[in-house]
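#onboarding

Welcome to the new folks! Below is a worked example of what a typical request in this channel looks like: someone posts a single protein sequence, and someone else replies with the predicted structure as tokens. Don't worry about understanding the tokens yet, we'll cover that in week two.

Example request:
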Amino acid sequence: MGVSMSGYGEESAVAALDVAALHRLVEVLIEQGYRVVGPTLRDNAIVLDELESAAELPCGWGVEVAPGHYRLRRRDDDAAFGHSSGPQAAIEADLARMVSDNLELEDAELTALCEKVIRSYDPCISCSAHFLTLTVHQV
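Example response:
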């Protein structure tokens, strides 16, 4: 069982748990009366639910998401949290294309379009799209 730490200083430290340590962590939390919620497979999707053990984590599973598309898929590894990286590259490419195609719009209109692109990938992040501050510097 092992934990490896990286980073500089206490605030930036990152811990990586091996499989045995992850299982033990969930076990100890439950033994101490904590309710452990994490990703698990249900109904052909990865959903958050209360865990009875780390064995319920979606090890080796991922998802493909795109506008109007969600598909569970087997990964080439056994990562417990590999599903959560999301379609970042696709979102960025669609945002860049949408912005370059609509540079004639006012900043507020362009910002609203950017928020729509983000929401089209995952409505669960629609609230976080409000962080978007768009400033166009035309050359």
